[in-house]
Amino acid sequence: MVAALSEPTPLGAELAALQGVIGRLDPLVRSGLTPADAQHLTSEVGRVKNRLDALTVRAARVIHDSRLARRQGAASTGDLLGRDLGNDRTAGNRLLGMARDVPEESLTDQALSAGDLTLAQARIITDGLKNLPGNTTDEQRVTAERTLIADARRFTPKDLRARADRIADQWADKPTVDRHESELLVEREQRAWNATRLSMWANGDGTTSGRFTIPDAQAAMLKTVLDAYASPRRAGMLGREIDDYATRVGQGFCELIERVPTDRLPNHGGNNVLVTVNMNLEDLEGRIEDAAPGTITTDGTRMSPGQVRRLACDAKLLPQVFGGESVPLDLGREERLFTRYQRIAIANRDHGCAAPDCDRPPGWCEAHHGDRTWADGGSTNLKDAIPVCAEHHRQIHTGHLECRLNPHDGIPEFRRPGTRQWKRNHRWRP
Fold first, then answer.
1. Percentage of the chain with pLDDT > 70?
2. What is the CB neighbour count within 10 angstroms for residue 92?
């Protein structure tokens, strides 16, 4: 009896043979591939993976029908399946969903078993068939399924889903298909709106992480804006040597937040939305290295003096400056910003960032208060404005770059600390 149990089953023997094939392929792949071999490998492995996924779907059906999860003490079939998928219950539930929703020996199941579909494509097709109009005949359903399987070979998942929403065009007229798609979109948009979430938490190291789920339409809008901030050319203009797209998008998101037009936001507590930053006047006026940090009053976040000075110049913040006894000395920061028409004049006059060799256009510039910053008692006159990009503005307020208006012709000039030569941007203002 013991000897019989130790004998491999036919399935076990074939799986062992499969492991052996993979073991023989591994050194061949590691020894180096030609581009043609590499492309052939990815194509064939993709088909093999699809066929293996089809086998796991069939196995999940058996596990579900046999109620094996309960006998093994698992919380659910999805939990039991997830144990073999990296202890990922979500992955187990997705696999179980496929096992339930894809009918055995259906056209979709057969295409998956042949390697012609991925699990994601099979999911899209299955959802599309579930969303067909209620009066669809069996023959029409087969036509729709066959068409979507063929379309999966040439469409991206996003396009395939859009095609599935209109698959009734194989037998219905355009007004009927339009009406059906609109009904699907209304229902989907409402579900997406109800599922919208955003959460944030402080990591304790100066960063905050978060997670959000938003509808596709708003996600497309956000991505369009962030792509503009994160474009490689713009990163080059900022002097950033960043190849990581996610980092560029993250930094672009920060710039987007700084530029939110608070005067257009809904009232909050009966007042226009304002972010106030508290800092002692002597710290704001003094040397950066000797200054104390500032504080965002809404949640107590601390910021370096250079960061406060940079934001005070341009961002929609209301710095609340205190004297020795915490007596407010100035609360009208937004009134001291350069006006829209002043900015137009600055753009026409300077054509972009005034820092030497910087080619950032006017739309990406902030107005710096010339020789005397606002903290030093400077005025918001047009002749005192120096347009600088965000990066050079940051360098000015962190002490890594000095700027002045030339005493003879009023043209902005810059120099690095410890150097004597003042330089101009000859691209824009020869």
1. 73
2. 25
Confidence class for position 225, pLDDT limits 50, 70, 90: confident
Q: What is the dihedral of CA 77, 81, 87, 90, to 10 degrees?
A: -70
Tell me the longest C-alpha to C-alpha distance in the chain: 104
The residue type of 67 is: R
Q: Do the beta carbons of residue 229 and residue 255 sit within 8 Å?
A: yes
Q: Name which residue leads in pLDDT, 300 or 316.
A: 300
Say how far apart CA 46 and CA 109 lie, in whole Å.
17
Please check the confidence at residue 332 and state whether its pLDDT lies above 70: no
Residue 274: closest CA among 218, 341, 337, 206? 337
Count the Cβ atoms, other than its own, within 10 Å of residue 344.
Answer: 11
> DSSP class of residue 276?
E
DSSP string of 79-91, one letter each residue: HHHHHTTTS-HHH
**How far is the C-alpha of 42 from the C-alpha of 55, rounded, in Å?**
20
The DSSP secondary structure of 144-170, one letter per residue, reads HHHHHHHHTTTS-HHHHHHHHHTGGGG
pLDDT in tens, 177-213: 888 888 888 888 889 889 999 999 989 898 999 999 9
SS3 319: strand
Q: Are 424 and 412 contacting, i.e. CB atoms less than 8 angstroms apart? A: yes
Helix (H, G, I), strand (E, B) or coil at 368: strand
The residue type of 212 is: F
